[in-house]
Fold each of these.
Amino acid sequence: MSEAKLTLSDDLFEKLPEEEKNSEFIAMALKTFAKDAWDRFRRNKLALFGLIFLTIIIILAIVVPMVSPYQFDTQDMANRNALPSMQHLFGTDKLGRDIFVRVMYGARVSLSIAFATAAINLVIGVLYGGISGYVGGRVDMIMMRIIDVIYAVPSLIYIVLIRLVFGDSIGSMMLAICLTSWIGMARQVRAQLMSLKEMEFSLAAKVIGASHSRILLRHLVVNALGPIIVSLTMMVPGAIFTEASLSFVGIGLNPAVPSWGKLANDCRSLIFTTPIQIIWPVAAISLTILALNFVGDGIGEAFQARTR
């Protein structure tokens, strides 16, 4: 009887050949969070174009003033208001200074201010908003009312007062921009953390005895990193535009510092005689802000797709 059952079992079931055992296995490469976000980002053509453009601008801003035979402040009164040529790619200004070198040096100033202020705003906004959203209660209420008081005063008043006290240096400009621009970051981080701190992973970290600082920085802030990075990329064009607009109206940097806004302000008196001079700094500001917006949109879509 047992032999009959064994024979019947052997007839009904056969061992699967080795070559067919993994026939339905779907091979898939493992991706980290950053790799997946980068793959989605580079599929966005506008975002990739913006990143390439910014890279080129940064390289030119570093290299051109170093290798050019002209200095940004070298005057040539015999060659004033010259049109673009092979000798001067963007022409010369009313004092005979090479505009191409001045625009690239202005990129150093404007981009340095923009990236530095964005980094400072990131640190202040994340810490302030993180503490407010994580602690909550009376502490949150007091911290938000402080923000309301700061935000109630027009930022132009802060800028003028700081300029009067600290002068028209790059440091005072960065301080003036940072004084109020971190508020948006703080509010966004607070809103994110107020929802994240009620989730299971946060409660689990509390149960196992993690410290408040570890929960805040290693769990909550990390999970809110997507919106934070998107907001950070939007801060950079805002800082560029603020510096350029202040320099354009004459309350920005020292006149000897050729930022993009200062270059546009210098060309304002020549707009009817040699209008081409104002095109270069304005085009640099516009294209850089546009590229940064493309990059910000691409980062936002990459992180949002990851979240979904």
Amino acid sequence: MRIITLAHRWMGVVLCLFFAAWFLSGAVLIYHPFPSLSQAEQLSKKTGIDFSKIKITPKEAVGKNSGFDRFRLIDVAGQPVYVLHPQIGPVITIGADDGKPLNLLTGETAGEVAEKFLGEPALRIYGPLNYDQWIVPNRYDPYRPFYRISMLDKKDTVLYVSSRTGEVLQKTEGSERAWNYVGAVVHWIYPTVLRSNWALWDQTVWCISLFGVVTTLAGLWLGVVRFREAQKTTRTHSPYKGWLRMHHILGLFSGIFIFFWIFSGWLSMDHGRIFSQPNPNTRQIQSFSGKPMKQTVERISVEALEALKQSNEVEVFSVGGKTYVMKSSTNGKKLYEPKGREVLSPTEFTELELINALKAAWPGVNIQSTQRPEKFDIYGQLRESSLPPNTLRIILSDPMQTWIHIDMDSGQIVSVMNRSRRLYRWLFNGLHSLDFPGLANHRPLWDVLILSMLAGGFFFSITGVVVGWKRLFNH
């Protein structure tokens, strides 16, 4: 008991402010998520590709480059450009008109890109810079460095233009930034200086959260023990007085919720430590594709590309060993299949094609069944992330009872959910954001319930702050 008491006391002194900040910032994060530029908005505002300028074939652009898994064609400041995505490292950009590698964009060119994107004049241009508070996530790594461009509009918009591809990949507005400084940045312990080093940030937040779990568990145990002792001796709820009494009594009522909330928050930093990852590994991706990217682009000629008029982006990829071309424009996406070197024919993926490709990625495993997840599927439609509307779920008959989700429109594997990952769905999504069937989609009932619980956790944490302060300074 002495060890548990000391552990709870001194870890609580250190962590009580974190607890209070987590509860308060969690309430903000519900209504003001971290800024992001949707793919739909990004594609809709891209400049159209001038196919008449293309002189270099995809095969010639690839040349001696290897080890890349994506191949795109976009416009960069009026020039058609092939973008090669290596498995590790920055993207490689090759001029589709001259076959030469592109230099990093100048600030002036980035400003012009931003003005075309938003339709407003640029006010200030910063950079190039590798990190900024709103471009710290790892998905931006292949496109660094960026230009940060403040726009002259009513919403105080800031755009981030990759100096490698000339693409606008992030957009923030003044109100978003203000709310997120007290929301996501606090909640995720996300200051740029820490988050720019992913490994350090991952270990730091994981350890702080784990200490939070231990502190809460110790407090629950002590709270029950002290309550039972008080009942036997003085027949009161708590043997303490003042703020410590309030801390004890509030903990008895809200302790279970606080423990599960801190525990599930700790699981958000799992990253494969305990539970499986939701993504296919490199070998599975390559096997699902069926052939290297060098071979995939061989069948695409300049004449075939010229038929894709009014495109903002073109991507070449393979599924099950067959080459496909995806055209993206303001009207959405359209899939094509090469018929010879100069003809692209509209097509759609069939379930059989995707199943056969999957068998190559998971060799020796039988297909148990296939499903189309319903609108309110409890594993596919979550508050924080949802499967694409046209998703095929392939259920394998392996020991882990794995489900593979494939987007029927793009032909890409969007998630791998085995028994471990389905348990994670309840322990994290369920406990952390009350994502339970019959509750998560019933607003404002869900809002009232979760805000009440967050408020209770916040006020309980404040009592811990006061108790810790008094302990430290003997008040």
